[in-house]
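Re: beginner question about structure tokens

> Can someone show what the tokenized structure looks like for a real chain? I only ever see the sequence side.

Sure, here's an example I had lying around. Input first:
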Amino acid sequence: MKNIQLFLLSLSFFIFACKKGETPITVDPVIPPSSYSFSDLKVNGTYSGFTYYGLNSIPIIKITFSTPINLSSASGNITLNDANGTAIAFTPTLENNDNTVVITPTSLQPITKYILTVNTGLLSKAGNKLQSAISVNLITAVDDTDKFPRITDDELLTLVQKQTFKYFWDFGHPTSGLARERNTSGNTVTSGGSGFGIMALVTGISRNFISRADGLARIQKMVSFLKTAERFHGAYPHWLDGNTGKVIPFSTKDNGGDLVETSYLMAGLITARQYFNGADAAETTLRNDINNIYNGVEWSWYRKDNSNTLYWHWSPNYNWDMNLPIKGWNECLVTYVMAASSPTYSIPKTVYDNGWAQNGAMKNGNTYYGVQLPLGTANGGPLFFAHYSFMGINPTGLTDAYANYETQTKAHTLINYNYCKANPLGFYGYGENVWGLTASDIKNGYTASAPGNDVGVIAPTAAISSIAYTPAESLQALKYFYYKLGNKTWGEYGFYDAFSLQDQWFATSTLAIDQGPIVVMIENYRSKLIWNLFMSAPEVKAGMKNLGFSSPNL
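And the corresponding structure tokens:
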């Protein structure tokens, strides 16, 4: 286009400069400087665009051009840097009649991104410049060596439980004893995560990680704090100040009662009450305190003007403005179970049928990745739907008018597993060893990952906490996370929250609501301890039967 413009400009000058009878003035044409072009790229003998995943530590990069290259101009015009801009040494050579530059890096680090750049200053032997710069992304593979010594699968499960248990024991809030929201939360404690933590504490006592006396003392501390903490018609807020017991708003209008978080806390307390069944004064007092807390939750008031559904939030400043009805299918089944089981503020079956089950509208029945899903959203949604309620509720053989819950939890997990194996979005690393989409931290944020919201981030809690449903698939993932990725995924409180092999990102965070299910669901797989305790509560048996549930465990 530029040459045409120059020609037209020259032509117009020629036309307007000539007068009748005069000799035309000739102008030499403008000749643009010569350049040469890129013609081919191969990394380890393969072309796949300008981004390459799963590379070995010394990949061979061959870039071919339309003309022989002057290798002496490579310095400064061919660069290899990591994502932080640090220069990486490499050796350039020529082949293919000097048309191909061969780049051989020194040994690269695993699971790391490198950027190879060729600038236009790279000269041909004729002294011409490259027409356009080239940039190639090189991402190295996982180092397949074991990061920790091999132990038996049983020993590994115990190790994972014990290390993750430390989040609730070592890192429990010093004043309240409750679980902090995450490892950077300071005084912010979480009501729902504390319910999971109480179940983890009971597991820790049973596994001899701590003594019964020490576990009892910690739960006494928690219960003592909860007796004086802020409540809203009996319901606790999502977050509390671990020193004062005052509400910490989860959002502007979410500064009052959170019925779902409260139900997780109550499920944990009821589990502890069933475990501490001794006749001595300390355990008797603990049971009475737990009963008073549970009986003080005004579940029926959260029907919002006696409607046929439960509502998630109520605020003393904003009333029902959050306006979020608790409808299935999601993580909130236990909320309806705890409400129906209440001796003081119970809900009738009509609230369960109309509010939660939406008179059957929560049914699915479609098949995804070869598995039929009884309930819920397409492809099952995030895996925490299959964890939070079922830390206490045993789905084995559990049925009601809407589903078989053993089928539901297994189907949901297998769909998640099969989706990650199929990997329709092509995220690097996904497969039978690396699977599990659920709510977790992501790079610069947080999201509820699921087949319909897949951002390339795997959360170890997703696969590990599903071990009761898919033992072989979950154990395979757990072993890969520990043995192969453990130098990046394993820390002081067990597995970090999430990682992305696609983006070479590894979280350094741990969250109560993700650590708790790991400890508890492994235990349910191994011994059914928490399932048996929760399902043994007389109120739970009566409440679930009133909702129409049938189970060998009721």
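Each token stands for a local structural state, so reading them left to right follows the chain. The radius of gyration is 31 Å.
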